[in-house]
Amino acid sequence: MRFLLVEDTPELARSVRDLLVLDGHGVDHAASLAEAEDCLAAAGYDLILLDIGLPDGDGRAFLARQRRQGRDVPVIMMTARSAVADRVDALDGGADDYVTKPFEMSELEARIRAVLRRRGGAAQTLRHFAGVAFDPLAATVTVAGETRALRSRELRLFEILLAAPGRIHSKEHLCDRLFSYAESVTDNAIEVYVGRLRRKLAGSAARIETVRGLGYRLTAA
Protein backbone atom coordinates (compact mmCIF):
# COMPACT_ATOMS: atom_id res chain seq x y z
CA MET A 1 0.00 0.00 0.00
CA ARG A 2 1.03 3.61 -0.40
CA PHE A 3 1.02 5.96 2.59
CA LEU A 4 1.49 9.71 2.99
CA LEU A 5 3.37 10.75 6.13
CA VAL A 6 2.89 14.40 7.10
CA GLU A 7 5.37 15.13 9.90
CA ASP A 8 7.86 17.98 10.41
CA THR A 9 10.16 16.32 12.97
CA PRO A 10 12.93 14.73 10.85
CA GLU A 11 13.93 12.02 13.32
CA LEU A 12 10.37 10.82 13.89
CA ALA A 13 9.54 11.00 10.20
CA ARG A 14 12.59 8.92 9.35
CA SER A 15 11.77 6.29 11.98
CA VAL A 16 8.14 5.96 10.89
CA ARG A 17 9.05 5.85 7.22
CA ASP A 18 11.73 3.19 7.77
CA LEU A 19 9.25 1.07 9.73
CA LEU A 20 6.55 1.24 7.07
CA VAL A 21 8.96 0.59 4.21
CA LEU A 22 10.21 -2.47 6.10
CA ASP A 23 6.58 -3.61 6.28
CA GLY A 24 6.43 -3.38 2.49
CA HIS A 25 4.58 -0.10 2.02
CA GLY A 26 5.49 2.81 -0.22
CA VAL A 27 5.78 6.00 1.85
CA ASP A 28 5.93 9.62 0.71
CA HIS A 29 6.98 12.17 3.31
CA ALA A 30 5.73 15.76 3.52
CA ALA A 31 7.17 18.14 6.13
CA SER A 32 4.41 20.74 5.71
CA LEU A 33 0.77 21.01 4.69
CA ALA A 34 1.77 22.64 1.40
CA GLU A 35 3.95 19.64 0.54
CA ALA A 36 1.12 17.31 1.55
CA GLU A 37 -1.24 19.12 -0.84
CA ASP A 38 1.27 18.66 -3.65
CA CYS A 39 1.53 14.94 -2.90
CA LEU A 40 -2.24 14.49 -2.86
CA ALA A 41 -2.53 16.29 -6.18
CA ALA A 42 -0.01 13.93 -7.75
CA ALA A 43 -0.87 10.50 -6.29
CA GLY A 44 -3.49 8.41 -4.55
CA TYR A 45 -2.92 7.04 -1.04
CA ASP A 46 -4.31 4.20 1.05
CA LEU A 47 -3.61 5.96 4.36
CA ILE A 48 -2.43 9.35 5.67
CA LEU A 49 -0.44 9.73 8.91
CA LEU A 50 -0.99 13.35 9.86
CA ASP A 51 0.63 15.51 12.54
CA ILE A 52 -1.51 18.26 14.07
CA GLY A 53 1.12 20.95 14.67
CA LEU A 54 2.85 21.75 11.38
CA PRO A 55 4.91 24.81 10.34
CA ASP A 56 2.26 26.16 8.00
CA GLY A 57 -0.95 25.27 9.80
CA ASP A 58 -3.09 22.91 11.85
CA GLY A 59 -3.47 19.34 10.65
CA ARG A 60 -7.09 19.28 11.81
CA ALA A 61 -7.98 22.15 9.48
CA PHE A 62 -6.14 20.37 6.68
CA LEU A 63 -8.10 17.18 7.36
CA ALA A 64 -11.42 19.04 7.43
CA ARG A 65 -10.56 20.57 4.06
CA GLN A 66 -9.78 17.15 2.57
CA ARG A 67 -13.10 15.78 3.78
CA ARG A 68 -15.00 18.75 2.30
CA GLN A 69 -13.28 18.06 -1.01
CA GLY A 70 -14.56 14.49 -0.93
CA ARG A 71 -11.29 12.72 -0.10
CA ASP A 72 -12.19 9.69 1.99
CA VAL A 73 -8.69 8.26 2.50
CA PRO A 74 -8.21 6.94 6.07
CA VAL A 75 -6.30 9.31 8.38
CA ILE A 76 -4.49 8.65 11.65
CA MET A 77 -3.57 11.81 13.57
CA MET A 78 -0.20 11.94 15.35
CA THR A 79 0.34 14.59 18.00
CA ALA A 80 1.88 15.40 21.37
CA ARG A 81 -1.44 16.85 22.50
CA SER A 82 -3.01 14.35 24.88
CA ALA A 83 -6.04 16.28 26.13
CA VAL A 84 -9.38 14.55 25.60
CA ALA A 85 -10.71 17.66 23.83
CA ASP A 86 -7.92 17.43 21.24
CA ARG A 87 -8.70 13.78 20.53
CA VAL A 88 -12.41 14.51 20.25
CA ASP A 89 -11.77 17.42 17.86
CA ALA A 90 -9.59 15.22 15.65
CA LEU A 91 -12.08 12.36 15.52
CA ASP A 92 -15.06 14.67 15.00
CA GLY A 93 -13.11 16.37 12.22
CA GLY A 94 -12.86 13.16 10.23
CA ALA A 95 -9.84 11.30 11.61
CA ASP A 96 -10.11 7.51 11.76
CA ASP A 97 -7.79 7.18 14.75
CA TYR A 98 -5.43 9.14 16.97
CA VAL A 99 -2.02 8.31 18.44
CA THR A 100 -0.27 10.41 21.07
CA LYS A 101 3.48 11.12 20.93
CA PRO A 102 5.71 9.60 22.06
CA PHE A 103 4.36 6.26 20.89
CA GLU A 104 5.77 2.80 20.40
CA MET A 105 6.17 1.79 16.76
CA SER A 106 4.33 -1.44 17.48
CA GLU A 107 1.32 0.60 18.63
CA LEU A 108 1.37 2.62 15.42
CA GLU A 109 1.53 -0.57 13.35
CA ALA A 110 -1.43 -2.00 15.29
CA ARG A 111 -3.48 1.15 14.78
CA ILE A 112 -2.71 1.14 11.06
CA ARG A 113 -3.82 -2.48 10.76
CA ALA A 114 -7.01 -1.74 12.71
CA VAL A 115 -7.91 1.27 10.55
CA LEU A 116 -7.27 -0.64 7.33
CA ARG A 117 -9.37 -3.56 8.60
CA ARG A 118 -12.27 -1.26 9.42
CA ARG A 119 -12.06 0.53 6.09
CA GLY A 120 -11.35 -2.59 4.04
CA GLY A 121 -13.96 -4.85 5.60
CA ALA A 122 -13.91 -8.23 3.91
CA ALA A 123 -10.80 -7.31 1.96
CA GLN A 124 -8.83 -7.51 5.19
CA THR A 125 -10.11 -10.96 6.23
CA LEU A 126 -9.50 -14.44 4.82
CA ARG A 127 -10.27 -14.57 1.11
CA HIS A 128 -10.49 -17.41 -1.38
CA PHE A 129 -9.72 -17.24 -5.08
CA ALA A 130 -9.16 -20.06 -7.60
CA GLY A 131 -7.91 -22.56 -5.05
CA VAL A 132 -5.94 -20.02 -3.01
CA ALA A 133 -6.79 -19.12 0.60
CA PHE A 134 -5.30 -15.70 1.27
CA ASP A 135 -4.80 -14.36 4.79
CA PRO A 136 -3.47 -10.77 4.59
CA LEU A 137 -3.07 -10.45 8.36
CA ALA A 138 -0.89 -13.56 8.57
CA ALA A 139 0.76 -12.72 5.21
CA THR A 140 0.17 -16.22 3.84
CA VAL A 141 -1.43 -18.05 0.95
CA THR A 142 -2.54 -21.66 1.29
CA VAL A 143 -2.60 -23.88 -1.81
CA ALA A 144 -3.68 -27.54 -1.63
CA GLY A 145 -3.22 -27.52 2.14
CA GLU A 146 0.28 -26.04 1.99
CA THR A 147 0.71 -22.64 3.63
CA ARG A 148 3.29 -20.35 2.04
CA ALA A 149 4.56 -17.15 3.59
CA LEU A 150 4.51 -13.95 1.56
CA ARG A 151 7.19 -11.33 1.83
CA SER A 152 5.95 -7.81 2.42
CA ARG A 153 5.83 -6.58 -1.18
CA GLU A 154 4.54 -9.93 -2.46
CA LEU A 155 1.67 -9.45 -0.02
CA ARG A 156 0.96 -5.90 -1.22
CA LEU A 157 1.12 -6.99 -4.87
CA PHE A 158 -1.33 -9.83 -4.33
CA GLU A 159 -3.70 -7.50 -2.46
CA ILE A 160 -3.73 -5.14 -5.44
CA LEU A 161 -4.32 -7.90 -8.01
CA LEU A 162 -6.93 -9.69 -5.90
CA ALA A 163 -8.92 -6.50 -5.37
CA ALA A 164 -9.84 -6.50 -9.06
CA PRO A 165 -9.44 -9.91 -10.76
CA GLY A 166 -9.29 -9.57 -14.54
CA ARG A 167 -8.25 -5.95 -14.44
CA ILE A 168 -4.98 -5.09 -16.18
CA HIS A 169 -2.48 -3.23 -13.99
CA SER A 170 0.36 -1.47 -15.77
CA LYS A 171 3.89 -1.69 -14.42
CA GLU A 172 3.75 2.05 -13.78
CA HIS A 173 0.59 1.66 -11.70
CA LEU A 174 2.09 -1.18 -9.68
CA CYS A 175 5.30 0.79 -9.08
CA ASP A 176 3.19 3.71 -7.91
CA ARG A 177 1.32 1.52 -5.41
CA LEU A 178 4.30 -0.45 -4.11
CA PHE A 179 7.06 2.14 -3.91
CA SER A 180 7.47 5.74 -2.80
CA TYR A 181 8.94 8.64 -4.78
CA ALA A 182 12.12 8.37 -2.70
CA GLU A 183 12.81 4.82 -3.86
CA SER A 184 14.69 4.30 -7.10
CA VAL A 185 12.99 1.41 -8.94
CA THR A 186 12.67 0.12 -12.47
CA ASP A 187 10.08 -1.96 -14.29
CA ASN A 188 12.32 -4.96 -13.65
CA ALA A 189 11.52 -4.74 -9.96
CA ILE A 190 7.85 -5.44 -10.71
CA GLU A 191 8.85 -8.41 -12.87
CA VAL A 192 10.85 -9.83 -9.95
CA TYR A 193 7.91 -9.57 -7.52
CA VAL A 194 5.46 -10.98 -10.07
CA GLY A 195 7.79 -13.94 -10.60
CA ARG A 196 8.07 -14.59 -6.88
CA LEU A 197 4.31 -14.37 -6.39
CA ARG A 198 3.67 -16.75 -9.30
CA ARG A 199 5.84 -19.35 -7.56
CA LYS A 200 3.85 -18.92 -4.34
CA LEU A 201 0.59 -19.50 -6.27
CA ALA A 202 1.88 -22.59 -8.10
CA GLY A 203 -0.48 -25.56 -7.81
CA SER A 204 -3.63 -23.42 -7.79
CA ALA A 205 -5.84 -22.20 -10.63
CA ALA A 206 -4.81 -18.60 -9.93
CA ARG A 207 -2.73 -17.13 -12.73
CA ILE A 208 -0.94 -13.80 -13.06
CA GLU A 209 -1.08 -13.19 -16.80
CA THR A 210 1.29 -10.92 -18.65
CA VAL A 211 -0.63 -8.76 -21.13
CA ARG A 212 2.07 -7.74 -23.56
CA GLY A 213 2.61 -4.00 -23.66
CA LEU A 214 -0.05 -3.36 -21.01
CA GLY A 215 0.80 -5.05 -17.74
CA TYR A 216 -0.51 -7.87 -15.55
CA ARG A 217 -3.86 -9.27 -14.45
CA LEU A 218 -5.03 -11.97 -12.06
CA THR A 219 -7.24 -14.68 -13.60
CA ALA A 220 -8.57 -18.13 -12.76
CA ALA A 221 -7.45 -20.83 -15.17
Please give a structural write-up.
There is one protein chain. α6 (152-163) packs across α8 (187-201). This protein is elongated. A five-stranded parallel β-sheet has the order 2-1-3-6-7, sandwiched between helices. A four-stranded antiparallel β-sheet has the order 8-9-10-11, with no helix packed on it. It has a two-stranded antiparallel sheet with strand order 4-5. It has helices spanning 10-22, 33-42, 59-68, 84-92, 105-120, 152-163, 171-178, 187-201, and strands at residues 2-6, 26-30, 47-51, 53-54, 57-58, 75-79, 97-100, 127-129, 132-135, 140-143, 146-149, 206-211, 215-220. β1, α1 (10-22) and β2 form a beta-alpha-beta unit. The protein starts with a strand and ends with a strand. It has two domains: 2-121, Response regulator (Rossmann fold), CATH 3.40.50; 126-220, Arc Repressor Mutant, subunit A (Orthogonal Bundle). The chain is an alpha/beta fold.
Overview in brief:
The chain is of the alpha/beta class. Helices cover 42% and strands 25% of the residues.
Please state roughly what percent of the residues sit in beta strands, choosing from under 5%, 5-15%, 15-25%, 25-35%, 35-45% or over 45%.
15-25%
Main β sheet profile: 5 strands, parallel
Under the CATH scheme, the architecture of the largest domain is 3-Layer(aba) Sandwich
- CATH C-level label of the largest domain: Alpha Beta
Strand tally, please?
13
Coarse morphology: elongated
CATH superfamily of the largest domain: Response regulator
Instruction: Give the termini distance in whole angstroms.
Output: 27 Å
Radius of gyration: 18 Å
The average pLDDT is: 87
Poorly predicted runs are none
The helicity comes to 40-55%
User: What is the structural class?
Assistant: alpha/beta
